[in-house]
Amino acid sequence: MTLLDIFPSLRTGMPSRLDPAVWPRDTHYDGDGRITLGGVALADIADQYGTATYVLDEEEVRTRCRAYRRAFPEAEIIYAGKALMIKAIAEWVTQEGLSVDVCSAGELAVALAAGVDPARIVMHGNGKSFDELDAAVRAGVGRIVVDSLTEITLLSALATEPQRVLVRLSPGIDVHGHPAVRTGVLDQKFGFPLGSDAANEAVARILRQPNLRLVGFHCHLGSQIHDPDHYGEAVRRMVAEMAHVRQDHGVILTELDLGGGHAVAYRGGDAEMNIAELADIIEDALDAACARHHFPRPVIALEPGRAIVARAGVTLYRVLSIKHIDGGHTYVTVDGGMGDNSRVALYGARYEVVVANRHPTGPQMTATVAGRYCEAGDILAADIRLPADLRPGEVLAVPCTGAYHHSLASAYNSVGRPPIIAVRGGRCRELIRRETTADLMAREVE
Ligand SMILES: Cc1ncc(COP(=O)(O)O)c(C=O)c1O
């Protein structure tokens, strides 16, 4: 018997071993040793809504939005909806003063349904179809980010009022991440290489269209960038290009959108972007570049997605079985996996996993948390530490799963996608319900 068994109230006073770098600020242990988020015990959410389930801390999302607004008081902060686009998020971020970026007609529809002012919506995508451009123009979105010469032709045919556009440029900055997330380099599918004939042609063509108004440039350097210097370099290169446009066409572009990509920590010790430092570096680079080219300061826009919602999300799973392979690993199989978290298979992402229904204090084992999907590679976390006395039925929680989890989820193996449950002030509410087998069957035509 431990001291905690004799005096259970000591638990609430125990130093938390939940790393504040990866868990929402309002994460605690309750008197029974269970993890609570936004004042709600995660084990209760698992009981009420089943598992796998995404939990989202509303206050954490709002706090992150406010932090960006404080750090960049003069910039436009545009939430990148691809990280997680549901009506509630669109409402929260716009209530906090952010704009919203969408990259499909579907995301646009969600933003509009949430009541986002179309003028504060930015439309992205390297493969926007005619119908998507049509939907964006008809909705009156504030800006469309042009990604190809074909789009210019389509947009000039569609726009009845002057449509504000940005041109997406790749500034040739290599942030050295996973190949799938390095989007600042010249040879990749997004945008036009900065300084290329194609980029110059795009600018010239837009300026010739009376119903298109070129207001600025856009770039996106990649994902999980923790070195703010890359953004300083982007500012220098992009402002120089804006000065070229003034020289060649006598037009002054007023907006510079630097995209998103600010790193968050998925596990304790991971590097993350310091947004105060980022603000200083962008400010200094802007001052220097504008002075050098005698160019008026453009309005800076930033498009954080992950940095707004990642840490607000926690995914809950229930342990289904525990298997010890002689001379091999111990596999803890849970009722979710690559269907709700494809980032492990896509990018080799790594996560922390903890027991949520009790605060274990005894011996630990090394275990591999395996997903339930029929793929040998469906592993959520390899060789992590879990309590040696873990049992089927217990609830495991994976932090930092608010971004690119629900939005990348699939119904592989005909397993429906998990619900999203919001927590705030001791209450929870279901934002998105679980996808049922009936939902999946509803698409069968015969
Ligand atoms: C154009 C653009 N803006 C913003 C983002 C958001 O990136 P992050 O969620 O890493 O901040 C992305 C992500 O791919 C993007 O492609």
Explain this structure to me?
This protein folds into 2 domains: 3-57 and 311-441, Lyase, Ornithine Decarboxylase, Chain A, domain 1; 59-309, Alanine racemase (TIM Barrel), CATH 3.20.20. Helices cover 30% and strands 23% of the residues. Helix 6 links the parallel strand 6 and strand 7 (121-123). With 446 residues, it is an alpha/beta fold. Helix 7 (130-139) packs across helix 8 and helix 10 (229-249) packs parallel to helix 11. The longest helix has 21 residues, at 229-249. The relative contact order is 0.16. Pyridoxal-5'-phosphate is lined by residues 80, 82-83, 124, 220, 223, 259-262, 303-307, 403. The modification N6-(pyridoxal phosphate)lysine is found at residue 82. This is Diaminopimelate decarboxylase.
Entry keywords:
single chain; 446 residues; alpha/beta; Lyase, Ornithine Decarboxylase, Chain A, domain 1; TIM Barrel; 2 domains; nine-stranded mixed beta sheet; eight-stranded parallel beta barrel; 14 helices; 21 strands; elongated; disordered N terminus; binds pyridoxal-5'-phosphate
CATH class of the largest domain: Alpha Beta
Tell me the number of structural domains.
2
Reported CATH architecture of the largest domain? Alpha-Beta Barrel
List the uncertain runs: 1-5, 7-16
Distance between the termini: 62 Å
**Quick one: biggest sheet?**
9 strands, mixed
Helix content: 25-40%
What is the count of β-strands?
21
Ligands in the structure? pyridoxal-5'-phosphate
Q: What class would the helix/strand composition place it in?
A: alpha/beta
Mean pLDDT, rounded to whole units?
Answer: 94
Radius of gyration: 24 Å
The fraction of residues in strands falls at 15-25%
